[in-house]
Input
Amino acid sequence: MPASVIEAHELFKSFGFNPVLRDVEFNLAPGRAALIVGQNGAGKSTLIRILAGLSRPSAGTVLLFGEDSRRLGPRYRRRIGLLTHQSLLYPNLTARENLEFFGDLYGLDDSRAAAARWLERVGLAEVAEERVRSFSRGMEQRLAAARALLADPAFLLLDEPYAGLDPQGREMVATLVRDAVGRGCAVVAAAHAPFVVEDVDFEVLELARGQLGAPVEESRRGRLRSQLGR
Output
């Protein structure tokens, strides 16, 4: 694996005449975590999509696992986990069917076993045969987290990962993040305000006026607690 899982150089993104990102520089090594904070409209989701290789910058380059993100093949795609505002789940399929489908898509050896394991891990084993369209927002977010981590990605991107979750759900996501970092996964999260995850040192960066600034605070350790509602 390269020294950096992700490298972004001189990223610029505009929609029409509206610049969203300006000269963004970013890199992250395996087993490290970064938290990007910013207000609504700051460009956090746009940056997450570019770092995931799902959107092209107007200028600049992104290297994922040492490869140009514009030319990533399937074997690299399965190494990227993404959790966004949209669950990317199929509402007419059951929770189990969704995870088995994505397991097959990722080329897992035993998608059924992987689906069962992750349904248990995110606390949805008892509703495995229920269709996702009947799920609450929090249940759907739990299943989306399982989808994002199903193939044990080497790079995990989280856009507002605690949205719609109760305290138990937030603690579960924090545990998943902690475990991912512990096995060497690089993690990028985006949120409106800083939060902490026990035993994970986040480099906190601020995205404002399209530019990614220096850390807004020192990396911290402590209990998971969103600062948003304090």
Q: What stands out?
A: The chain has six helices and twelve strands. Helices lie at 44-51, 74-77, 95-106, 111-121, 137-149, 167-182. Residues 80-152 form one domain.
